[in-house]
Amino acid sequence: MIKAAVLGATGYAGVELVRLLSNHPEVQIEVLGSQSFAGQGIDEVYQSFEHILDVKCEELDLDRVRGCDVVFTALPHGASKEVIPALIEQGVKVIDLSGDFRYDDIEVYEKWYGQKHSSPELLKESVYGMPELYRDKIKGARLIGNPGCYTTCSILGTVPLLKSGMAETKNIIVDAKSGVTGAGRSAALPYSFCECTENMKAYKVATHRHTSEIEQELSKAAGEEIIISFTPHLIPLKRGILATIYVNLKQKSSAAELTEMYKEFYKDEFFVRVKDEGHLPETKFVAGSNFVDIGLCYDERLQRAVIVSALDNIVKGAAGQAVQNMNLLFGFDEKTGLKNAGFYL
Amino acid sequence: MIKAAVLGATGYAGVELVRLLSNHPEVQIEVLGSQSFAGQGIDEVYQSFEHILDVKCEELDLDRVRGCDVVFTALPHGASKEVIPALIEQGVKVIDLSGDFRYDDIEVYEKWYGQKHSSPELLKESVYGMPELYRDKIKGARLIGNPGCYTTCSILGTVPLLKSGMAETKNIIVDAKSGVTGAGRSAALPYSFCECTENMKAYKVATHRHTSEIEQELSKAAGEEIIISFTPHLIPLKRGILATIYVNLKQKSSAAELTEMYKEFYKDEFFVRVKDEGHLPETKFVAGSNFVDIGLCYDERLQRAVIVSALDNIVKGAAGQAVQNMNLLFGFDEKTGLKNAGFYL
Amino acid sequence: MIKAAVLGATGYAGVELVRLLSNHPEVQIEVLGSQSFAGQGIDEVYQSFEHILDVKCEELDLDRVRGCDVVFTALPHGASKEVIPALIEQGVKVIDLSGDFRYDDIEVYEKWYGQKHSSPELLKESVYGMPELYRDKIKGARLIGNPGCYTTCSILGTVPLLKSGMAETKNIIVDAKSGVTGAGRSAALPYSFCECTENMKAYKVATHRHTSEIEQELSKAAGEEIIISFTPHLIPLKRGILATIYVNLKQKSSAAELTEMYKEFYKDEFFVRVKDEGHLPETKFVAGSNFVDIGLCYDERLQRAVIVSALDNIVKGAAGQAVQNMNLLFGFDEKTGLKNAGFYL
Amino acid sequence: MIKAAVLGATGYAGVELVRLLSNHPEVQIEVLGSQSFAGQGIDEVYQSFEHILDVKCEELDLDRVRGCDVVFTALPHGASKEVIPALIEQGVKVIDLSGDFRYDDIEVYEKWYGQKHSSPELLKESVYGMPELYRDKIKGARLIGNPGCYTTCSILGTVPLLKSGMAETKNIIVDAKSGVTGAGRSAALPYSFCECTENMKAYKVATHRHTSEIEQELSKAAGEEIIISFTPHLIPLKRGILATIYVNLKQKSSAAELTEMYKEFYKDEFFVRVKDEGHLPETKFVAGSNFVDIGLCYDERLQRAVIVSALDNIVKGAAGQAVQNMNLLFGFDEKTGLKNAGFYL
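YS: structure for the whole thing
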């Protein structure tokens, strides 16, 4: 039994962490940090927890957090800059859900986030928390940069094709659609019910920060620098990202061949489900679960692969992947606490 | 470890049973019955189960079902009339989710369902599966009539007041609102997305079958015959029932007094959460969980209690309550497999 | 052609007024008042107006407004207290969408709104803007108190029964459900998409201000003081109110009799559609239109009428009724600008 | 005043035609054809029309239809094959909303629709009903092939760039998202509320029929054969298509330049609104209206234009465009009956 803290526990990623950890047999939730709701029980802020979890939210107190084995920081970018180094120094494992520790190259971070990085040394040491790609490194890490939601969906959907050598590396396009929880727990007008429902839109075209994170991983997979078009869209549902990925191929292929190749690539991965040929993911298949579903199409007229990948942005795209990383860090079975079927309904 | 069968496994109540049972530590899912999808894996019909549950749907075969310890029949009213007696005879415990075994009085059933009852003897023996009211009887039963969704919400919200003797028994009104899963997995036009979303309506005013089931239990609680107004409404969401219940009181009271009385009444009930005074239920607090939430208001101008109760119609209103009943039948902790926090998001 | 101003033009009631007025053949939109968006075109704030209406929002300037023939004040309660008297003095007709000028009795207003009324003299003179009940008075008025959304739905659904003398005046219950536009254009967290969708709740039970407005009109219709239970609910859709109204009857009746009586009562009213016996309203039938639909049920076991009425809260419940009032004030055909079919889809 | 018939009046495109025509000052609705609902009033099938339009649906009777000036055929592909030639012969103008008369090349039609064309002669004569591209031809036509919803959105968003000569003609990708009305009035399970809401998916990847229609028009605009990737997605809302279009450019450009070019191209088009630089379309800006909104982005890292276009699939994508075509056919102002602001809410 390990002790865990969640800082930023009342945001949507934070509360999903609380939901998953409250059901994890090896974890004791010790500290829930929340500036806005300090003093209130988590079951007051999210009344779904009544009778389930009786822990009070509290303001950040390093002495309290320090006694934990693992700390999840689910705070805005840059907000944990004093906390994380202090914790690492104390030997506490940190899984950071912000963008701060996801980059190999500090310049890429500073360019896309428009701010100096506060802990360049730690950035160097941190491990990108995508178990399907970096399982071994994660196991020994002190600090995990937990990947973004769009990025997990895009990277896991594209990497096998890039590693196969079949892909042209130019003209890769990721057209991604996200539910509204992706914007966090926000009272801003554009995320109000009447403005969001019955509406859809693209936003931050060619400028979204996740572009750089996707490119970093695709470039490593391809062994050369890759620049992509990445377009996020806001869709009127709560949970779910669907990414439609267009990749030209160097030679003729088929849906069958692509499917087989992906199935082989992910054959040991519990949380990646490659659909049979002719089947495509839908976000309701993954809602509430830690799965990524991937479907492969082939456009023979254009010699182009069209890959559709789907996940739940606050589970595999945030909290679930963080728990998966925690399982690796502490030597638990990687699936612990993450084996329940999703919602569908 | 007991063996379970779900007949009607691909309807919405059925598949929610499968979801809950797949996460239950004492249950092995042995048989999934589905006429429409026989031969297909449950993870093909509901692809959220991929990697989670690998069981094929099959047509009804009594020999297969007979080997189970418990059978859940989630079929339309009257559809299990040959199956259930045969199973009971074999010593298999049956939890029936239809209306067939919920009634004390066969005439009430036959009047409201417009058909002869096929097993009057079994009806006499069957126990109404509402643990909060009939826990002891359930423990020793062979056949459970699992309550309806509207009825569970209405009954648990009203019974304490009736048992207290504070209530006038005339002019009780239950105005209930349900999400669309209440209609089952239906391809009928009125339940299509474009006809349902951005719409609401009342239906079956003063004629819905659940009226008789609610009246049966309220009458027993009050010790006199009670006739109510019950109005169901269709609301554009998936999961959730909210019942607003109006009860005149014999003398002055207060929200504080009513709240305290309900808290006392349900103090040992894990799955009933009486809200603190001034707080009201919302369906998102119960979605995906087996909880019923109840909030008490008092209208001093009218000496009237207004009770708001909420549950997830396919969990506490169907599949979750069925699992709760199963836990009682087999001597498991009543909360087993039902302790996860709900969805909220 | 008359000149119109809308103050509070960028709220939801305000912008619906703009939508309707922009399509009204006798109206020139002269001034759009908006503090938050002064300087921006209405087609920037609501981009649906691009190519349709090219008017800039402006801060309140009495000199500008004074030149108009009619001013719609769609501001929060109390906010127009200096503006309205000044306009009335100048001979400008005012249609006020707040609660300020809806009451016969200043004490009722002050009790339910918790504030002193700023213009008791004007309150006395103002006319309650419900054409179906006060058409003649409206025609000659200088100041209209435009009714609330819940209230229009509840009053038009109940008045015929009360006027008929068939109704018991005790135990009248109005259980009302509203879409989220009823909360106005709000950035508050409870109205955010992720908190609202897939959720429903009751709120302000027995304390909502509209209770007093409904009681005022029902009491006048009945010729005696009537106190009701009124319960508002928040439902995850944009437009629409559905009120389910329970009224005990003095003697036996039938759905046929009730329907006939309502059809007779409203036979000259274009905007009230009494459904044929056996049919009930749905909010999609009225969305986007100025209609109120009313369906009559009779519960013979309880000698009780159950009336279901539905309207679009920002049309007949706000902006559409305001335009209807304007038509009467200026001698236009009452239906002018309001004859388009609603949305359904 | 002309007389109009709508065949297939109770489907979603049909009923939207009825809604628009009922508000058109130059049109008398004479015949509403509906096999499923013959004998019922349109205001029974769609109760939003009560008090607005009192016309009975009827089975197809050529003698009745023949007396009209214009007939809209909103039937499935191939279903009008006997009707249309007969009407044309009688001198009735026909606007066909199916795919049957949209093609220049009969082989393309037969390949993508998998059936022989029944009226090759008429296909030759028919005019593609996109006024922004073929206004003059439409004016003199006898038979209009009214464009598809995805296609209108995609073509109007791409043609200016292709005509400018700035575009590379390879690697054009159209990633399109549609609301559920696009599937028509369907009782099929995948379009049921509980299966659609909170879900999104891609479908018919690289095989959707609209691909061929888009390619036909893009090829003409470019002066060379163009093959595109076209991916449709189903999104949980009723009305709206959003297309995100990726086009590589031959040389450097900018959002400003692209925007200016599009504004110039469409400067005389009332129904096309090119957004100012930095602004993007949202489907709520066009819902219920005949507008297409187009926003231009430029990805300087990739020398690629990303164009976002949006329309209401049953208005500009079907019924509204049909009315626009009718206005041209009969010499009415093109905007007649189509000038109302859309819904936004």
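YS: worth flagging: The mean pLDDT of chain B is 97.
IM: good catch. Also The radius of gyration of chain B is 20 Å.
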